[in-house]
Amino acid sequence: MSLALADIRAAANRIAPHVQRTPVLSNAALDHASGAQLFFKCESLQAAGAFKSRGACNAVFALSDAAAAPGVVAHSSGNHGAALARAAQRRGVPCTIVMPHNASVAKVRNVESYGGRVVFCAPSLAAREAACAGLIADSGATLVHPFDDYHVMAGQGTAALELLEEVPELDLILCPVGGGGLICGTAVAAKGVRPTLSVIGVEPALGDDVTQSFRTGRRVAIATPATIADGLRSNVTGERNFPLIQQHVDDFVTVTEAEIVAAMRLAWEALHVVIEPSSAVAFAAVHAEKIAVRGKKVGIILTGGNVDLDKLPWLHS
Amino acid sequence: MSLALADIRAAANRIAPHVQRTPVLSNAALDHASGAQLFFKCESLQAAGAFKSRGACNAVFALSDAAAAPGVVAHSSGNHGAALARAAQRRGVPCTIVMPHNASVAKVRNVESYGGRVVFCAPSLAAREAACAGLIADSGATLVHPFDDYHVMAGQGTAALELLEEVPELDLILCPVGGGGLICGTAVAAKGVRPTLSVIGVEPALGDDVTQSFRTGRRVAIATPATIADGLRSNVTGERNFPLIQQHVDDFVTVTEAEIVAAMRLAWEALHVVIEPSSAVAFAAVHAEKIAVRGKKVGIILTGGNVDLDKLPWLHS
Fold first, then answer.
1. What top-level class would CATH report for the domain B53-143?
2. Strand partners, A143
3. What is the ipTM of this complex?
4. How far is A271 from chain B (nearest CA, A)?
5. Nearest CA in chain B to A303
């Protein structure tokens, strides 16, 4: 199996009863400032507060009854965990989420609010994977990887399908990149529907593993990134994701922590949406002029809205 | 002239090219907590960040070319001013806004960003009206009152029309009340489309002039309210608004400042929308259990999203 447009269309049908069709916002002032037409796909308004509900629902509802019964397990910096807990709750099967002990309180509560059980581990990929493996050996549950999974990628790609239905003539789609789930789904969906469109991934400069991998042609692993964009702290491109990225993604750019915070604040102020730092990286690339957008129609995926409102980055310098 | 459903339908057609059709959000956790089905009409995502764009566009585009040419003038605690400046800019006519000197910086900048001229005055209705009268005498501009104006009320009512198109079986609509523009439009629209529906207005307890007027049957004037809900600081019901309120609105309730802040924060956290304190009062009435909503389908109008992100009320106790 790999990932094709047909898989993403199938995912859209499968998850339709379980996710929101999110609005696409535009803003005259932001268009004027950038010289482009910007279309913000608001996955921060998605069920469970992030696009992750799309991939999680597709993975959970694609399981046979027998495979689903023992439940699902994942490691997640937060939003995938909440989304998977919600998907499992809707299917009526158990869910256990392995989270790093430095995950935000809001994200832990979010998992628990959907009936998910949270197990904590050290904030490294190795620790997360070991904890998951133990849980699976004990229970027979199915691992739903946050990004290195074709069903998850297919689900994530449905956001781009919707965006292109509303704005068919897009020139460019920008999306935040963690492990590569969203950008693979986005690129396969977008290029499938509109081959002339460009897809550019944006990473925090502090966590540029996918950018490095794309440039060097091999999966570069870095130390766990210390970026404020906590949804993008994965430190290596997915094994299944990397060849799809090499084939379908046009380019990558990176943004600084200050650029992320500035873009996050501007989105709150101008668009009136609560987005988390990870969500802001794609808009940050436009706002900090890392990408030439003048005269173009640009889709920007705002990926999630789960933040700790007591710890807003512009109030804690 | 008074206000009828036909006026609101005409307004909807007139303003369609100039405003957004805003999304209606729902949230499983908030539904569960309230025992109701809550439908949030997100006018915080409206052009210029508030429902006020609806009324302002209707008033400006209803003017003849000759009447429009000298421009428009208003007094406003903020959002009506920005909305009127934007409407005037779209029509290509000048706009001057009289604002109280304690208006938030964000709201002043918002007016100026649409090419509006801001003139400051003391924070009282008398001072605002005197300043407007002077400007009108000098320029021949048309006053567009923020609420005591049938075209403005008709425009504001278009939000309820859209909400009922999406959720036709609503039992109840709750809306924040300042001078009475939104609730008159809402009540006439909603009762016109669905006579069995109830419309309840919500005011800050610190600024309950309309509630007092409704209870006593006469237009009660109070001191300028000191509520955090700065969009609701009008201190007397509009002259044209009051009879419509008496005829069409079912009841009023009030909420405390703490209830407003709690509801505002919860909306940010659960719905991932940036709403201003004035926007939160209707949801506050549900969250603080001031209204019996269990088992009902409840429409809640989130009126605006213009806040100063450096001064969030839960961070400054």
1. alpha beta
2. A73
3. 0.92
4. 7
5. B272
Q: What is the pLDDT of residue A10?
A: 98
Question: Pick from B29, B45, B265: which is nearest to A272 by CB?
Answer: B45
Q: A268–B275: do the CB atoms touch at under 8 Å?
A: no
pTM, rounded to two decimals: 0.94
**For residue A317, pLDDT beyond 70:** no
Please state which CATH number belongs to domain A5-50+150-315: 3.40.50.1100
Asked whether B156 and B187 are in contact (CB, 8 A), the reply is: no
Q: Which two tokens stand for residue B237?
A: 């019901």
Q: Which residue of A has its CA nearest to B274?
A: A272
Residues of A with CB under 8 A from a CB of B: 23, 25, 28-29, 44-45, 47, 49, 106, 113, 265, 268-269, 271-275, 305-306, 309-310, 312, 314-315
How many CB pairs below 8 Å do chains A and B form together?
57
| CB atoms A45 and B310 under 8 Å | no
Please indicate whether the domains covering B5-51+150-315 and B53-143 agree at the CATH topology level. yes
Q: What is the structure's pLDDT at A77?
A: 64
**Pairwise CB contact (< 8 Å): A310 & B314:** yes
pLDDT tens string, chain B, 317 residues long: the values are 799 999 999 999 999 999 999 999 999 999 999 999 999 999 999 999 999 999 999 999 999 999 999 999 998 868 899 999 999 999 999 999 998 888 777 778 889 989 999 999 998 878 988 999 999 999 999 999 999 999 999 999 999 999 999 999 999 999 999 999 999 999 999 999 999 999 999 999 999 999 999 999 999 999 888 999 988 888 888 999 999 999 999 999 999 999 999 999 999 999 999 999 999 999 999 999 999 999 999 999 999 998 889 889 888 64
The answer on pLDDT for A165 being more than 80 is yes
Q: A196: exposed, middle or buried (C-beta count within 10 Å: 0-12, 13-18, 19+)?
A: exposed
Pinpoint the alpha helices (H) of chain A.
5-15, 28-34, 52-62, 65-68, 79-91, 105-113, 125-139, 150-156, 158-166, 181-193, 209-216, 241-248, 257-266, 277-287
Check: CB of residue B83 under 8 Å from CB of residue B52: yes
Record: contact A273-B268, CB cut-off 8 A: no
Domain locations in chain A?
Answer: 5-50+150-315, 53-143
Out of 3.40.50.720, 3.40.630.30, 3.40.50.1100, 3.30.830.10, the CATH code matching B5-51+150-315 is: 3.40.50.1100
Please state, in angstroms and rounded to a whole number, the distance separating the CA atoms of residues A112 and B134. 60
Label each residue of B101-161 as H, E or C. CCCCHHHHHHHHHCCCEEEEECCCHHHHHHHHHHHHHHHCCEECCCCCCHHHHHHHCHHHH
